[in-house]
Amino acid sequence: MNVNYSTGSGKVDVTALFNVDNRPYSLILQTEKQGISVYYTLNGTKPDRSSFLYKKPINIDHDVILKAVAFQDGKQVERPVEFEVVIHKIIGKKMIYRQEFNERYPGNGLQVLNDGLKASLNYNDGYWQGYYGNNLDVVIDLGEDFTFNTISSTFYLIRKNGYLSRKL
Hints:
- By secondary structure, this protein is mainly beta.
- The protein has no helices and 13 strands.
- The protein folds into two domains: 13-85, Immunoglobulin-like, CATH 2.60.40; 88-168, no CATH class.
């Protein structure tokens, strides 16, 4: 038909895979392009073709800095992506939303606030959950008593577009 079309992006997307009751915590790496290879590191170094080759979900049991990049025909397809993974006690715990997040910033769904993936500074990367006109109001059902030494969160304020929140 002589039509130009996209074969998809080679950007690596990262999805956390977890079950609160049944560990392990894993990461799935994927791209839109078919037939390409994804290489990754877990120590924050830039991945190349001598790094780990992604073949199946990566089990994670401690904090890591994941960097991943795709190669096709021996050439890097996109820039590497970087995610800080923080293993903590509330990963996967039930989230009860008392206010709806903004439809423009749904993140990766209802578990985005406690999936262990720390936010980047790119609020358009699909991992942020945003609130505009409503305050963030979420209850986390821990299911049991916990003792916490530290509680932290990451927020991003954009005055012209409202408030964006991400990750507890």
